[in-house]
Request: fold
Amino acid sequence: MAQIQGDLQAQIMSALWRLDSGTVEQVRAALPSRYRGAYTTVQTVLNRLAERGLLKRGKAGNAIVYTPGLSEAEYVSRSIERTLASASSDARQAAIAQLISDLDGDEISELRRRGSELERRRRRS
Amino acid sequence: MTEILTSALILALVLPHLLPLSTASPSVAATIWLSTLALRALTVLFLALYFVLFFPNTEAFSAITHWCWHTVLPLVTTHMGLDGHRIGDAAIIVPPFVLAFSAVSVGVGVFRAARAVHGMLVRSSLGQGPRDSLIVGGAGVLLAAAGITRPRVLVSAGALTALDDDELAAGLDHERAHIVRRHRFVLVFAEMMRAFARFLPGTGSTLGELRFHLERDADRWAVAQSHDPHALASAICKAATTRGSAVPGLALLSGHGHATRRVDELIEPNSRRPGRVARRSLALAAAVMVCFTLAIAVSVPAVALAGIQQGQLEQQRHCQD
Reply:
């Protein structure tokens, strides 16, 4: 469910970047067929993305219109990663604590494996 | 007395590597590693003091300076009029200069990093995110507590789309824990200690272990805010997965395996919990380490003073001769 939710959130953002702005029904229609769930599902995810600050909610007549709060270019921007990488590693870690710090390839593969396991466990529970 | 103190110092430096600290409470483990780092810095400081204040008064120093210039390079000393002892005197001030340079460079590094992070917060923020966080660009899952004086939680746009509600809440609380528990001050202090201790082997791994236990501390705090530990573990895994395509500069050796150890602890928390006696013993070890470190730190001025007095006595004796 978590993975599906994450994918759906990303698909809805893509759809809104294409549309510029849209109602629940317009966004739902713009989604790829495999993500085109129930109206309420799309509405729930749109509201969640608005609460998280990624979308702005406005009114057009009776309908609620959703607009992206950031552009696609900003979404894919890697300026933060570059800023973090450019600073000296040790000094940077004193000024910024990340959820995960520096990893090598083996550990990334290991965490990917554990992530899939966790996904299955969480889906079961 | 000196031998006893030296033995105690060596034991205190080795002890954390022998204790089962990965099963200890994160704050106890972090206290022990921070004390070790401070002891390493003090060891280097004492070595520098010894070279400046005590070593010149020894027979060994006279023999070495004499041997260096009069025996090895007789032509230089004879024809260029160089005094081996004066050059030796100049050489002994190299260690404190190196330490001072190291301290200044690390201090400047931390200051510059803090300014860069502050600038990044001002320039790169794309808006207000959930729970008073700041949204920054980036498709990867990035969650961070940034800044030293006015820290904020950063969340990337990628994290806001990739994480579900539980994962996002747990991840944000993990970062909030770094701020609430004031880990940044511990890390700045640790960085200053590293400025001195970097000349001893094993200092990098000591700092890595300290960081690991601070992360464990933040994990525990986040889970205590009534979160599912699996949600936090899943957020860590997702962050690692998106990190796979990150810039190569971020892939460094420090902290190797730490994220995996954290995920394991979150998935199976009870398998790593020590017994009551072990817990109390580790807490006692932490208290002893802190007291010992403070005692050593307090003795620095006394040792320096003794060295200066010994130097003055030697000079008076030299003048009388």
Notes: Chain B is about 75% helix and 5% strand. Residues 25-320 of chain B form one domain. The longest strand of chain B covers residues 152-156. The beta strands of chain B are 125-128, 134-136, 143-146, 152-156.
